[in-house]
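Dear V.,

Thank you for sending over the compound details. I've combined the ligand you provided, glutathione, with the protein sequence from our construct and run the structure prediction for the complex. I'm sharing the raw inputs here so there's no ambiguity about protonation or stereochemistry in the SMILES, which I know was a concern on your side last time.
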Amino acid sequence: MMILISTPTSPFGRKVKMAARIFGLMDRIKVEKGDPWTEGDILRQTNPLGKMPALVLPNGKAVYDSGVILDYFDTLLDEPKLFPKARRLDVQVMHALAGGMMDAGVLIAYERLRRPTEFCYEPWIDHQLSKLQRGLASLVREAPDPRVADAGSISLACALGYFDWRKQIDWRKEYPALVDWLEHFRATYPAFDETKAEH
Ligand SMILES: N[C@@H](CCC(=O)N[C@@H](CS)C(=O)NCC(=O)O)C(=O)O
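Below is the predicted structure of the protein with glutathione bound, written out as structure tokens.
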């Protein structure tokens, strides 16, 4: 059995869970709750960076970050599906874009929620927001196929799901083409709804 350390609300953890469900690996994984904010927590013991998700293999090896975990999942499949050989570079770039947007969203959340209000620095938040705006605009021009699950499309679905929760950007109003994109993805892959956190 592999152990996946994460929380239901982590968009990066959701990406790994969604990939495991879609590609039939979930019955080999036990999920354990991790907490990045607590000294001595299993997450910090597993990943020195204290970031979720982290995967512990049956031989005890710790695997992180989420992209490396997806790459590892590919080695368990008959052929790579998360980073398919023929489209590897395109998928890697899409995965990096969606992951970078999640990073920006998470940084905005930490700035607002983890720092005392008097230290909350709006220009920094705007700097991160501009990444979301440019990223979403570029996705309107060139989004991956929502009916093909790979590391790129799964990450993009998780990023949009995260913005729905944190509401850092009104992406549904500003980028309606992506609403259609997510609806197609959702309809094709029930794992999207199955991994949605209760907020
Ligand atoms: N690049 C990492 C990012 C993971 C990440 O930022 N996770 C957040 C939760 S969504 C976290 O653990 N943050 C705690 C921290 O930064 O200390 C990955 O893809 O796994």
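A first observation: DSSP finds nine helices and four strands in the chain.

Warm regards,
I. M.
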